[in-house]
Amino acid sequence: NQRFVLASRPVGAPTAENFRLDEVAIPALGNKDVLIENHHLSIDPYMRGRMSDAKSYAEPVAIDGLMVGATVGKVLESNHADYQAGDWVLAYKGWETHSVVDGDTLLKLNPDLAPVSYALGILGMPGFTAYMGLLDIGQPKEGDTLVVAAATGPVGATVAQIGKLKGCRVVAIAGGEDKCQYAREHLSVDACIDHKADNFAEQLAEACPQGIDVYFENVGGKVFDAVMPLLNTGARIPVCGLVSQYNSTALPEGPDRLSQLMGTILVKRLTVKGFIIFDDYAHRYPEFAQDMAKWVGEGQIHYREHAVDGFEKAPQALIDVLEGRNFGKMVVNIK
Ligand code: NDP
After folding, report:
1. What CATH number is given to the structural domain containing 183?
2. Are strands 107-109 and 19-23 parallel, antiparallel or unpaired?
3. Same domain, 135 and 274
4. How far, in Å, CA of 32 to CA of 104, rounded?
5. 152: CA distance to ligand 1 center in Å?
6. Ligand 1 centre from 178 Cα, in Å?
7. Do the domain assignments include residue 201?
8. Which structural domain range is residue 101 located in?
9. What tens digit of pLDDT does each residue of 2-58 get?
10. Residues 6+ apart with CB under 8 A from 302
11. Which of 219, 244, 277, 330 to mutate to test ligand 1, by most ligand atoms within 8 A of the CB atom?
């Protein structure tokens, strides 16, 4: 069994030296345990947080501990009544080629419904995050202007498309013209702005002539700075992630804008609410699974993967996601 462990904690952007590839024996199976041959490993921005020991909503990965992550794989052996060899499953264990886990913690996948790797993206955690954050906190209404960044990633692309299904004017933000063109053509957004453009804030203002009613916060930083003056009275901001800040080692330079932000929240009577998907919404998973399977099955929601072949490429895949070098949901194909 090959596995990546955390060799050291990154300062700023992670580097290859923060990870170590270890070879260990596969442990014997206990009662109810299942042995899985992992085929796909999910790479997600939250993994940067787990590499740090700063206090957060989840425990950090220990030094020399297995990197956390979700995998999709095939059952090789099972001591659990619900699973048999050949079943496809979703496991939450980590960056390893084989996993031994208690069968009670697994989700069985139907390979006839959709490609099994979709369970790591549109039909899994990122899709669920987009669905609950937008519908429960964002409360999109027909005619609202919805803005979302990281708009070609699994969360942002799903937010944009659910927004269109709910009748919003959707303004996407993405890094680069290729991503923007994709958002316009395949995600049906009304406009897409490249956040790397010099006059990004002006372009965003032009694309939102009626102001912003829902801002789905994925990135923070200069994108939020451009959004803040455009927010309408009563706007909703689901605070999902701040990926532009995950590699930061210090507060941004410039004036402290906290009082301006609090003043905007007060005067515009904004709803700003953070959420951690499984902590807050696990009980609503069935509702998501049903709606999303239908939307994807009917072709109403489009999904793009960025697949990288080779388990040894996992560290670089995470480094790339944090720098915006992924184009779609990052998945490492192990087999
Ligand atoms: P993505 O696959 O979209 O990857 C992150 C993207 O962020 C990059 O591709 C890049 O896109 C963008 N980005 C990176 N740096 C910057 C920057 N400096 N400025 C602007 N954009 C930047 O990730 P996900 O869809 O998996 O996740 C999106 C967000 O949702 C993240 O913040 C993540 O932490 C959060 N999340 C939160 C959850 C929760 O429970 N609250 C659960 C799951 C995800 P581009 O090139 O287009 O800029």
Report:
1. 3.40.50.720
2. unpaired
3. yes
4. 8
5. 9
6. 17
7. yes
8. 2-121+304-333
9. 999 999 999 999 999 999 999 999 999 999 999 999 999 999 999 999 999 999 999
10. 157, 161, 186, 187
11. 219
